[in-house]
Amino acid sequence: MRLMLVLLLFLGAAPVMAQKLTTTAALANAVNEVIRPGFADLRAEAHGLVDAMADLCAMPSADAQQLAREWFGKTATAYGRVEFVRIGPLMEDNRSDRLLFWPDRKGIALRQVQAILADEDASATALDTLRGKSVAVQGLNALEFVLFGTGAEALAGAEGAFRCQYGATVAQSISGIADALSEGWNAEDGIAAHLMAPNEAYADYRTETEALEALVSLISHGAEGLRDTRINPFIAQGEKAAVPKQALFWRSGLTMAIAEANIEGLEKLFAVSGVALIGGAADSGLDNSIRFEFSNARRAISLVTGPVEEAVADPKQAQALAYLVIVTQSLQTLVGEQLSAALGLSVGFSSLDGD
Amino acid sequence: MWQRRAFLKAAGAGFAASLMPRQVLALERNELVFASSVQTSSGGYGAVLLGERGDLIAQIALPDRGHDTTISPEAGRGVVFARQPGTFALVFDPSGREAPVTLTSIEGRHFFGHGVFSLDGRLLYATESDFEAAKGVIGIYDATDGYKRVGEFPTYGTGPHEMLLMPDGVTFVIANGGIETHPDYGRAELNLDTMDPSVAFVDRRDGHLVGQLRLESGLHQLSIRHMAIDARSRVWFGCQYKGAPSESPQLVGYATMDGEIRLIELPLDTLRDLRNYVGSVAVSADGASVAVSSPEGDLLVAFDAEGGRPVLVETLRNGCGLAADGAGFVATSGMGEMVGLAGAERDRQKFDFAFDNHVLRVG
After folding, report:
1. Looking at residue A111, what is its pLDDT?
2. Scanning every residue of chain A, which has its alpha carbon at the shortest distance from the alpha carbon of B274?
3. What does the alpha-carbon distance between residue B213 and residue B256 come to, in Å, rounded to a whole number?
4. Please, what is the Cα angle at B329 between B79 and B159, to 5 degrees?
5. What is the Cα–Cα distance from A236 to B43, expressed in whole angstroms?
6. Residues A54 and A184 grouped into a single domain
7. pLDDT number for residue B25
8. Exposed end of chain B (fewer CB within 10 Å): N or C?
9. Is residue A11 a part of any domain in this protein?
10. Residues of chain A contacting B356 with CB distance shorter than 8 Å
11. Cβ(A324)–Cβ(A297) below 8 Å
12. Is residue A348, in this structure, part of any structural domain at all?
């Protein structure tokens, strides 16, 4: 009994050793537990969106419009949880731009969508001819204008028939791409298989190190993208005044919901893959540090409660947005540089960030 | 080539005396000097001068990440340009006698990481972005007047990257990568569906467009980024493909002032391992060989400039920097390695800093 007590005391006093993972396990976790389910969710939500738009066009009403708007929100946030997986299927066939044409500094999508609506351009209401148009009129930001932009109230009645048909066609386009993404991630000899079991013969991932670099860079670049394309463009900085209409989805009020979805998706990819528990990284303390920064990011987002136009004018919310910029920068450094170094990778330097 | 004797001559009397004894010894032993931007092990940024044998001759701290370097023996100065979308360029005295001078890009412009001196060293030119208009410009700086910005020329394209001075001394060649970026959006690429890359020849005296070359329209997402000039004044360029990753277009070609532009046919397995990304291009000292690197594919490829046949394919983890080195090339990597290839005899060396994408043979 005494021996057991001593043993327990000894075990209790020993430093807590981090549970270690193999690279193989982390890659499999990322693909099977995060990426594939994430794209499956997007596919399911996009199908719901197609149905909701079809219902709205068949029987226009304020309730049907509200339902379509809700499905838009579900689809957009589902995409927000995977949009940073910018490898493989999402990078084929201009799918990323066709799903969401953003950043759109010059307001190209707005101009082109307004022209389609003003001209009642019938070629935008059939999937095959919509496909031949500018990528800016085929995706989520085009549909957001249809559902929430100037004139959207017409959707509740017969006068919105063309607008609805165009929106329904855009929803079909989004759904078709979501199908292709999910199928691409489930293809037998596709990117998922290559990422989980790299091979010298593959054109994309020859070694586990390359696959791990790709995974780590998704997280690092995802944090960078959130900061550079979703937050920085509309908040006040130095002498630059806030420009809330430069925020993604300001019309639908989904700006911060998408930011939150980004953080949720990135955090899940980081935590569930266990990428910071591989080899030497496991003893670096980075797993805790990075989780801490993700929780800070979530906390900052939760403080932004109003529409972006109000948020940038409210000191407390504006401060939370400014803090989110700092946290995402910190995440980029922690993952892209420190974790990368602890794993013996080179994600943040000469490769994978282009120049 | 800025060999040791020429280096001392360019730096002027008193140069060696100004160095620490260890650095003097390093210079005594070396024939060539190389310059590169680096990231230190503590995460800071800087630029280094290295001797042929890898001796650290000098190290300068930078306020942020640097990219390429240019040197003028005539001006007795080197310049490290900030990586895009950076706003600084650091003018330094390789001898260390004069304190570095930091240039800041003017309102509405940022640097792209590359630039060149006029042959007489009196003017410095840098590729810059007029980001509100999404147009490339060449910023002109007077080296004889504190590097005051004295004007600019258009690059006749968007997203200019590397620029070189042709051997005639009056014509710039500029790689317009075709990619629009804006500092409000960090490094996000804003126009991948409508990219229009080109090679532009521009007269440095008045900025007029001498000629502009584009690849076939189906290759509009092939961003032309880096260049080197061979013995026949052909401009070799390396590209980065921004289209679907499952596609593998050829990535290396040459352009001439006679209006020819073509991609050479690299073997498919070599092309595959370049991963749609060429990070640096160099021509050998005799102008007869060309080398390209891919830090994404960990690959270095050298081929003869006449037939385009690969003469060497070597792996270097995160390898990108390339410069002529006597008989062959020197290559540097983001993992802090420096190696010789294609006839350059040098031991593989490891430093405690990471090299940025380019290494310059000084001179």
Report:
1. 97
2. A203
3. 9
4. 45
5. 28
6. yes
7. 61
8. N
9. no
10. 349-350
11. yes
12. no
- The whole-number pLDDT of residue A19 equals 76
Q: Can you list the residues of chain B whose pLDDT is less than 50? A: 1-18
Domain that holds residue A218: 208-342
Region of residue A242 (phi > 0: left; psi between -120 and 50: alpha; otherwise: beta): beta
pLDDT in tens, B115-124: 999 999 999 9
- How far B330 CA sits from the closest chain A CA (Å)? 16
Q: Which two tokens stand for residue A311?
A: 């948020």
Instruction: Measure CB to CB from residue B357 to each of A97, A224, A350 and give the nearest one.
Output: A350
- Residue holding tokens 């109003």? A306
Task: Say whether both A148 and A64 belong to one domain.
Answer: yes
Same domain, A173 and A241: no
Complex ipTM: 0.87
Query: What six digits make up the tokens of A95?
Result: 């799918």
Yes or no, beta carbons of A351 and B184 under 8 Å apart: no
Q: Which of A133, A156, A188 is the last residue of a domain?
A: A188
Residues of chain B with C-beta less than 8 angstroms from the C-beta of A225: 188
Domain with residue B275: its CATH number is 2.130.10.10
State how many domains chain B has: 1
Query: Could you tell me if A221 and A324 lie in one domain?
Result: yes
Mean pLDDT by 10 residues, chain A (355 residues): 45 54 98 98 98 98 98 98 97 96 94 98 98 97 98 97 98 98 96 96 92 95 96 94 96 98 98 95 93 98 96 97 98 93 73 58
- How long, in residues, is chain B? 363
Instruction: Locate the chain A residue with the closest alpha carbon to B223.
Output: A355
CA distances B210 to A177, B128, B226, B336, Å, are 44, 20, 20, 40
Instruction: Classify residue A40: in a domain, yes or no.
Output: yes
Whether residue A323 sits in one domain with residue A281: yes
Tokens at residue A206, please?
Answer: 């020859």
Question: Would an 8 Å CB–CB cutoff place A237 in contact with chain B?
Answer: no
CB contact under 8 A, B277 and A229: no
Predicted local distance difference test score (pLDDT) of residue A110: 97
What residues of B are in the A interface, CB distance below 8 Å? 39, 43, 67, 83-84, 113, 182, 184-188, 190, 192-193, 225, 240, 244-246, 248, 272, 277, 279, 295-296, 317-318, 320, 333-335, 354-357
Query: What is the pLDDT at residue B24?
Result: 55
Residue range(s) defining the domain that contains residue B183:
4-361
Closest listed residue to residue A336, CA positions, set A276, A259, A255: A276
Q: Which residue of B has its CA nearest to A329?
A: B186
C-alpha torsion angle, residues A89, A91, A96, A99 (rounded to 10): -30
Residues A253 and A140 in one domain: no
Q: Is residue A194 part of a domain?
A: no
What is the Cα–Cα distance from B129 to B87, expressed in whole angstroms? Answer: 10
Confidence (pLDDT) at B55: 86
Looking at residue A309, its pLDDT comes to 96
**Cα-Cα-Cα-Cα dihedral of B299, B300, B303, B308, to 10°?**
40
Which chain B residues have a beta carbon less than 8 Å from that of A354? Answer: 187, 240, 277
Which among B240, B335, B354 has the least Cβ separation from residue A354?
B240
Q: Phi first, then psi: give them for residue B288, nearest 5 degrees.
A: -100, -15
Q: Does A225 contact chain B (CB < 8 Å)?
A: yes
Q: Which of A160, A188, A216 is the last residue of a domain?
A: A188
SS3 A112: helix
Q: Are residues A96 and A182 in the same domain?
A: yes
- Res A351: pLDDT: 45
- The reported pLDDT for the residue numbered B52 is 81
Provide the pLDDT for residue A325.
98
Q: Could you tell me if A150 and A262 lie in one domain?
A: no
